[in-house]
Amino acid sequence: MNQGELINLSQTFLARTYAPAPVVLVRGQGCRVWDADGKEYLDFVAGIAVQALGHCHPKVVEAIREQASRLMHVSNLYYIGREIELARLLVENSCADRVFFCNSGAEANEAAIKLARKYSRDHYGTDRYEIITMANSFHGRTLATLAATGQEKFRLGFEPLPAGFSHVPFNDLAALEKALTPRTCAVMLEPIQAEGGVIVADREYLKKVRELCDRRNLLLIFDEVQVGTGRTGHLFAYEHYGVEPDIFTLAKALGGGTAIGAMLAKEAVSESFGPGTHASTFGGNPLACAAAIAVVRELLEGNHLSQCRKMGAYLTERLVTLQKKHPPPGGQREGSRRIRVLPR
């Protein structure tokens, strides 16, 4: 079938949750993709932050091929070798001690929310369950992660949403302190607000948030679904700041194109998830874990992270130059912002 025929079929059979461009992509290699009619494109979206190594990286393809010929799925009622291998790789290269695997970023954030509430209940009782998140944030499309998301446009039509979430301005420590109540159990934020417009957290802000959480016995959760796994020039975005979260989440780039999510936590926090408290049928799936192992090893052993830092610095420099060269007519407009640079 040609591209036009496939698009016509989509109008009949697919749920109308997307409004895609009239392009059917059928092949990818590196930063290029091809449509059903053979036209070539540069992919600046990278599967929405998924293809950190590019499309069909040979080491990821080989890992998937080899694993698919041996074992594609097995229940978590048994130990899964690839899951254990990937967990060790992530723990040994992060501030976390334990990993829970699932299928997506939304599920990873759901797990983080559940763990924060369970930990708080275990240590402080039943009245401490609220999580403060940031205005302009995005944490997923499930009901709980929609409630956590600080953008009204994503929540419209799905009310009532689960209670227990409030939102404060990003990079505003005073607003966060003012929002704390005896019911607060955690603060959840993205080190870089991706869907919110690529808004970078200030180094001093994140350090102060960490200190505030320590003083008030609150958990600090970082959502690194879109900015983790090599997307910022470090394996994890928190490394730019010298600030360690109690819990952080990954997905997207982790699987190299396969569906996987992960919630990572410190040992003392992770202890609140005992047998039966949380689960995922496909969490730790051998196929997805094999792909993720290949991704993480390539990020650690190749030159991708250094190249990412180099290209990121170049792009930022050129954007700042353009911003200075072409200021808004009439001066700086209300609501516009300077380009923030990630701490090194």
UniProtKB/TrEMBL annotation:
Q: What is the lineage of its organism?
A: Bacteria, Pseudomonadati, Nitrospinota/Tectimicrobiota group, Candidatus Tectimicrobiota
* Residues that span the membrane, as ranges: none
Q: Please name the CDD domains in this protein's record.
A: OAT_like
Q: Which keywords does UniProt give here?
A: Aminotransferase, Pyridoxal phosphate, Transferase
Name the record gives this protein: Aspartate aminotransferase family protein
Q: Which cofactor does it need?
A: pyridoxal 5'-phosphate
Per the record, the similarity remark reads: Belongs to the class-III pyridoxal-phosphate-dependent aminotransferase family.
Q: Where is this region: Disordered?
A: 324-344
Q: Which Pfam families match?
A: Aminotran_3 (PF00202)
According to its UniProt entry, one GO biological process term is: L-arginine biosynthetic process
Give the Gene Ontology MF terms in alphabetical order. identical protein binding; pyridoxal phosphate binding; transaminase activity
Q: Which organism is it from?
A: Tectimicrobiota bacterium
